Each structure stands twice: as structure tokens, then as C-alpha cells.
Amino acid sequence: MGNVLIVGDLHGNTTFAQAMLQVAKRNDCGKVFVVGDFGAWEHMHSGRRYFDVVNRSAKKAAVTVYFLDGNHDKSSLLHELYDDHRDDEGFLVCRTHLRYAPRGHRWTWDETSFAAFGGARSTDKGWRLAKEARKAAQAETRRRYGSSKRPETAGTLWFPEEEMTDEELDAALEADSSPVDILLTHDKPRGSQPKWNRKDKPECFPNQDRIQRVVETLRPSVLFHGHLHVRYTDTIASGDGRWTRVEGLACDPEASQYLEYSGEHSWYVLRLPYAEERLEGTDETEPSSLPA
């Protein structure tokens, strides 16, 4: 099975993750790639169980699940736990059928080149920090009444590493700035203009500018991303007379606030090997192998 099922945010939704594995199986996809907010919360028991369940389900479906980090994935813990466990393609092996693509990672499947750049800004950062503070205060109160538990609360709901830094991006592009066919990100590029954009806020722009820089450096034919929880398609200029098709994917049904949401909006079958054809009389590139 050479096709890849590209999937939007799962947010640790086990039921929907298993449904996506069945979609992959029906569409002859041997790989599933989740474009961030996968549910990497292994600092909690529920997060570890989610990894285990998805891994078992993927094994049963004969599918390998890959993911990059979103703003709600604890990527620092992924590196801490799995940096020393990489497969031949450089992915971090979290479970036998579950693998993480770190920021700036590049690889090739079926003569098709890919790059992954995770990370984004959380617009609910204040709420998450406030909830962490409340949990810390509750733990301190229990301690005063004799509890021996010392739970760690900081960094459990909001992760300081959620956004890609300029230095991190500089290092990745300096290491390899050659073009790729497919770019996978969590955040949208600044240049794309979805009709419904809940991340159209000044605090989100710096990371969107970073993704835009990745687009203009790597000049992908197609970019897939999540984060907005809405399905849309756009085309943006990526330099040197090239264009990039932007495919924004929706999320699991429990997280969507979009009135026109459908579960089918959260996935896309990418057929490999990927091919593109140039439209006659223009400089625009049209991704011919992607279904409408």
C-alpha cells in the first residue's frame, strides 16, 4: 500500500484515530500521517494509554502512523524519551507502529520528497496557564493538610516549546534548503487565506511567518496543515515562478466548532509516487495526483 492518508488534528481522540485507520485501509494507505495535535501527552497516564491503543490498532490494520507536533503535543518529552530510538528514515520510534517526525525532518517515500515542520501558537495559552496555577494551588493546599503527593503541574497543559523558534528554523534550513514535493506542517503559512480563520490574531503571525519562510525556501508543490480545524484549499506563490497548493485539514469531531464540519474534511489521500504537471501557458503547478 503506497498511498498516504494525511490526517488533521486528532487531540488524543482514540475513537476517531481508529476510524482514520479504517479509512486508510479502505484507501490502500499503508501510512497515516497526522499533521499535529496528535495527542502526545505521555506525561499523563491517559496519553500513554492512547499511544498504546493507537499502536495496537495500527498493527491490526497493517498501517504505520506518523505524526508531527502541534502546539498541544509535548514535543520536549518525545525527544527525551525517543531521541535514541530512531528508524532508518530518522523518525523517532514511539511504538512499533507509531513514529514522530521532529521539526525540520526530511525523508523520501516512493520517489516523493517530504519535510515536516511542527509547532504553532496556542491562543488559549492564558487559560491553560491559569488552570496549571489552580492545580498547583490545590496541590499545595492538600500538602498543608498532610498529603505526601507532590504532583508536577507546570508544563502539563501548556508547553513552552509549542512554537518553532527562529534559531530552530535557521538551523533546519541551513542544514538543507533544497526543494521538496510535499510539506507537512501544523500551522498555516501566512500567505494562505481560508474563509474561516480562528487563528487570525497578531500573536499567531510570527509562527505563520516562519511557515511562510519554509514555503518560500523549500517551494513545495503541496502543503498540508491542521491547527485551524477547518477544511479549505488555497494556492499561494512560493517564489521562482512556482505556486504551492495549501490543503488545510479539519480535526476530530469533538474539537470542531465549524458549522459545516464533516468527518471527511479531516483526511486526504495522497497518492504516491507524487507527480505534478505544469498548466499550459502559466507558471502555476497543478498537483495532478491529488483527488478532488
From TrEMBL:
One of its GO terms (molecular function) is hydrolase activity. Residues 3-230 form the Calcineurin-like phosphoesterase domain. SUPFAM superfamilies: Metallo-dependent phosphatases. This is Calcineurin-like phosphoesterase domain-containing protein. It comes from the Bacteria. InterPro entries: Calcineurin-like_PHP, Metallo-depent_PP-like. Gene3D superfamilies: 3.60.21.10.
